[in-house]
Amino acid sequence: MYAQSKKLIASWFGRAWDKRDAAGEDAFEPFIYCWFSVNAWAACVTNQDRDAEIMKRLIASEGLITKFNKLHADDAEFAAVADEFAGWWPIFEVKSLRQADIRPPESGSRRDVVDYYLSQSASRFEPQCWQQHGEKRTPVPCDWPHTIAAIYRVQLRRRAG
Length: 161
Known about the structure:
Elements: H1 3-18, H2 28-46, H3 51-60, H4 62-74, H5 76-86, E1 91-92, H6 94-99, H7 110-119, E2 125-126, H8 130-136, H9 144-160
Antiparallel strand pairs: 1-2
Helix pairs in contact: 1-2, 3-9, 4-5
């Protein structure tokens, strides 16, 4: 990775980190700064520009899979945050919900929202295998491929939402 790219990525991430405690509407700014850094990093490490190709390569990266698994096993704080994020899965595609005129319920738990979206035939979400795991009564693994797919859907959700 070029020094200029590293500097740009670090700059965007630094802006996000400095505002990491933001809440409510103020949280969008650090989120987007963080996403800029993640997206730039992903484009650099995959040497791709198209989102679909970037994701395909990130998901299949043995190095990233190994690093994620090691962090999850060795760092309790990382594991807690990753597992908490996994508790919000599946992440639905806002664009398809909007196109199908599926509006979120005004109240209820995350599980209630998920059940409602599914009852309305919402089918575009990440991780894509979430429903199959539920049918088999097996948990979706909190691993690199599932996590990066969900992170990417959050980014698209924020952009579209």
